C-alpha cells in the first residue's frame, strides 16, 4: 500500500491521450503552489447575490467558495452541452458550438485556477476570501473546522475535466484535461489524511465531531477518488485511465484500491451501527430516539456517499464485501424511495424527518439550492443513478423501478423550475412548500449555478425533455418543452457571466 503522507514530487507523465482522462497532468510541479496570501488579487470573483437594482453584492465584502465553485460548474456545463448534438444543434442554435462554447471553456480554466490558487491550500478549502485581496478570511486553521458541505460539489469539478474532448475543435482539450489536476486530487487526499479515522469522517481534524452530516458530505466528496479507480478498472479502461499503471495512479491519489476498500469497510461499519430498522433510516445519536431530521442536501450527499462505498466494495472487494455493498445500497435506496414521496411539482421540502418508517416534511420551505444539489447528487457524474458496465448496477439489476422513479422525479422538477421557481425569468431562492408560491425572490449565485449543473446532467434522462438532435423524432410538445428549458438555461448562464462575475478592476 502507498503511504498516506502527502508527497509532491512525481515523475512527468509523457505522451497520453487527452480524451476522458481524470486526475492526469503533463508534469506535476515539484513544489506546492504559493499560498494565496502571497499572490496578486484574483482577476475576478463571483458575487453572492444581486440587489433590487440587479447589482452584484459581496456579502460582508467577501467572496464565497460556494458561489465561485457553483458558478464555474454551471456555466461550464452550458458550455459542455453546447456541443453539436445538444444546444449547438441546428434545431436550437448551432452558433453556440462555436465562440460561445470556446469562451466558456476558457472561463472554466480561469475559474478553476482562481479556486486552486486562492481558495485551496493542499486540499483544505477556504469558505471565504476577501473580495479585494483574495486573502482567506479564516486565518486560524486549528480553530476553524473545514466546511465539509463544500467538498462534495467541489470535487465534482471533474465533470468538465473529463469532457475535455468536447472542446477539441477549439484547441482547449489538453488544457481542460491536464491543467489543475492537483486541485481535484488534493481535496480527496486532504479529507482522507485529515478527517477520516476508523471509518468516521469528522468535521474537525481532532476527529471529535462526527455525525450524519460529516459522514454524508465527506463520503460524497470522496466519490472522486473512487471514480478514478472505477474508470481505471472498468471495461474499456485502457482507453483512458487504464493507460496509467496501478502504481502510478496510486502515487497520484496516495490511495490504492486496497486502501479504499479498507476505508469502505470501516465506513460501512459506522453506517451499520447507526441503522434503525424501525425508523427506516440512520440515527447518529444526536437526536432523541424515534426520529431523525436531515436537510435535503445532506440526504443527497448520504446517497452519493453510499454509492462511493458500495461501488468500491463491489468492484475491488471480496464476496463478503459485496454483501456489505448490497446492504449499503438497499438502505440508501430505502431512504431515497421514502423521500421521493414528498416531491411536489414545485420541489421538495428543505428538510426531511424520518419517523415511524416513513419520510415527512420537516420544513415549510423549499430551497432551490438544496433541491438542485439533491438532484445533482442523484444524477451528476459518478452518481447514484449513473450505472455502467463493470459497476455494481444494483438499481438496474435489483430495483429498476427506482431508476424510473428518479427519472420521473427529475422530469417533474425540471418542469417545476420553469413553472414555479422563476420570478421575472430568474431563479428565486425559496418557495412556500405548501403552495408553491415564491417565499424569497432573492437572486443568488449558488442556487443558479447548481441548477444549471443539475439540469444539464439530468434533462435527457427521463422522457419529458430531449436533446435538440432528437427533436425531429419526439413528440412536438417534448421538443417545445426542451426548447423552453434550453432558453432558461442559456439565459441563466449569461446572467451569471454578465452580472455575477466581477472583474478585479470593479
Give a verbal description of the structure.
There is one protein chain. This protein is mainly α and 506 residues long. The chain is 46% helix and 11% strand. The chain is built from 17 helices and 20 strands. Strands 12-13-14 form a three-stranded antiparallel sheet.
What is shown here, in short?
This protein is mainly α. The chain is built from 17 helices and 20 strands. The protein has helices at 65-80, 99-118, 151-155, 158-161, 173-178, 181-194, 212-221, 223-233, 246-253, 257-274, 296-316, 319-340, 368-379, 394-398, 400-419, 445-458, 476-500; strands at residues 44-46, 49-50, 56-57, 62-64, 120-121, 124-125, 128-130, 196-197, 200-201, 275-276, 281-282, 291-295, 351-355, 358-361, 365-367, 422-423, 426-427, 430-432, 438-440, 501-503.
Oligomer: single chain
Strand content: 5-15%
Helicity level: 40-55%
Let me know the number of strands: 20
Structural class: mainly alpha
* Major beta-sheet overview: 3 strands, antiparallel
Query: How far do the termini sit from each other?
Result: 50 Å
Q: Please compute the radius of gyration using only Cα atoms.
A: 22 Å
| Overall shape | globular
Tally of separate helices: 17
Unreliable spans are 1-37
- What is the overall pLDDT average? 89
Enumerate the strands of the largest sheet in spatial order, edge to edge or round the barrel. 12-13-14
Amino acid at each position: 500500500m502507498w503511504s498516506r503522507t502527502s508527497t509532491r514530487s512525481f515523475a512527468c507523465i509523457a505522451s497520453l491521450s487527452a480524451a476522458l482522462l481524470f486526475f492526469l497532468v503533463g508534469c506535476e510541479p515539484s513544489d506546492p503552489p504559493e499560498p494565496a496570501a502571497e499572490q496578486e488579487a484574483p482577476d475576478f470573483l463571483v458575487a453572492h447575490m444581486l440587489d433590487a437594482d440587479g447589482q452584484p453584492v459581496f456579502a460582508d465584502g467577501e467572496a464565497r467558495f460556494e458561489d465561485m465553485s457553483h458558478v464555474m460548474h454551471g456555466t461550464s456545463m452550458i458550455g459542455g452541452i453546447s456541443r453539436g448534438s445538444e444546444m449547438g444543434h441546428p434545431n436550437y442554435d448551432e452558433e453556440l458550438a462555436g465562440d460561445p462554447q470556446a469562451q466558456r471553456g476558457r472561463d472554466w480554466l480561469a475559474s478553476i485556477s482562481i479556486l486552486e490558487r486562492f481558495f485551496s491550500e493542499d486540499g483544505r478549502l477556504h469558505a471565504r476570501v476577501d473580495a479585494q485581496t483574495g486573502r482567506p478570511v479564516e486565518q486560524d486553521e486549528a480553530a476553524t473546522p473545514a466546511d465539509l458541505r463544500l467538498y462534495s460539489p467541489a470535487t465534482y469539478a471533474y465533470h468538465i475535466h473529463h469532457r475535455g474532448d468536447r472542446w477539441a475543435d477549439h484547441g482547449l482539450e489538453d488544457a481542460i484535461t491536464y491543467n489543475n489536476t492537483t486541485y481535484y486530487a488534493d481535496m480527496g487526499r486532504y479529507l482522507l489524511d485529515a478527517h477520516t479515522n476508523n471509518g468516521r469522517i469528522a468535521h474537525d481534524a481532532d476527529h471529535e465531531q462526527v455525525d450524519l452530516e460529516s459522514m454524508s458530505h465527506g463520503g460524497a466528496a470522496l466519490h472522486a477518488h473512487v471514480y478514478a479507480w472505477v474508470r481505471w478498472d472498468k471495461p474499456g479502461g485502457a482507453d483512458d485511465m487504464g493507460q496509467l499503471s496501478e502504481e502510478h495512479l496510486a502515487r497520484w491519489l496516495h490511495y490504492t484500491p486496497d486502501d479504499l476498500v479498507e476505508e469502505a469497510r470501516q465506513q460501512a461499519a459506522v453506517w451499520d451501527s447507526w441503522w434503525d430498522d424501525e425508523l427506516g433510516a440512520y440515527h447518529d445519536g444526536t437526536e432523541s430516539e424515534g426520529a431523525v431530521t436531515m436537510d435535503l442536501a445532506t440526504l443527497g450527499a448520504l446517497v452519493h456517499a453510499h454509492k462511493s462505498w458500495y461501488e468500491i466494495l463491489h468492484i475491488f472487494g471480496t464476496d463478503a464485501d459485496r454483501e456489505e455493498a448490497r446492504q449499503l445500497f438497499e438502505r440508501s435506496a430505502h431512504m431515497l424511495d421514502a423521500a421521493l414521496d414528498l416531491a411536489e411539482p414545485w420541489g421538495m421540502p428543505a428538510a426531511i424527518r424520518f419517523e415511524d418508517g416513513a419520510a415527512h416534511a420537516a420544513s415549510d420551505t423549499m430551497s432551490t439550492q438544496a433541491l438542485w444539489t439533491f438532484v445533482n447528487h442523484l444524477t451528476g457524474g459518478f452518481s447514484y443513478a449513473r450505472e455502467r458496465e463493470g459497476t455494481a448496477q444494483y438499481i438496474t439489476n435489483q430495483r429498476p423501478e427506482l431508476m424510473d422513479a428518479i427519472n420521473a422525479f427529475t422530469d417533474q422538477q425540471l418542469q417545476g423550475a420553469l413553472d414555479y421557481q422563476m420570478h421575472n425569468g430568474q431563479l428565486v431562492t425559496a418557495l412556500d412548500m405548501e403552495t408553491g408560491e415564491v417565499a424569497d425572490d432573492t437572486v443568488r449565485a449558488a442556487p443558479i449555478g447548481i441548477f444549471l449543473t443539475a439540469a444539464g446532467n439530468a434533462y435527457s434522462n427521463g422522457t419529458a425533455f430531449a436533446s435538440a438532435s432528437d427533436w425531429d423524432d419526439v413528440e412536438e410538445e417534448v421538443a417545445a418543452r426542451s426548447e423552453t428549458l434550453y432558453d432558461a438555461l442559456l439565459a441563466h448562464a449569461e446572467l451569471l457571466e454578465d452580472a455575477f462575475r466581477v472583474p478585479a478592476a470593479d
